[in-house]
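Morning!

This is the sequence you dropped in the shared folder:
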Amino acid sequence: QVQLVESGGGLVQAGGSLRLSCAVSGGTFSDFTMGWFRQAPGKEREFVASIRWGGGTTTYSDSVKGRFAISRDIYKDMVYLQMNNLKPEDTAVYYCKCRSGGVVPLDYWGQGTQVIVSP
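The structure's back. Tokens below.
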């Protein structure tokens, strides 16, 4: 069973930076795709960034491209989201997600970590 535990959220002023971490355990990682999603109050959960565990290919939403960077540490089984030049509209609960490989991919979610960006 894959388990994901996020950390690193908090309160930051606009223009500041935060790094979110996601500890990954369980499963076979090589065919996983790891991602970060976020959900602001009253809005649907949206995609932020993803990375292939094997190979490290990354994708980003247009709203964070150039400001956020997703990475993984295959030795520590960690996934990170470095967030720079934060804006108030980045305020949300951030979730780590794992999509397993295989014929029937399964999605696993962490519990979320709150990010608040003050003007």
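Headline: The longest strand covers residues 18-25.

More detail when I'm at my desk.
O.
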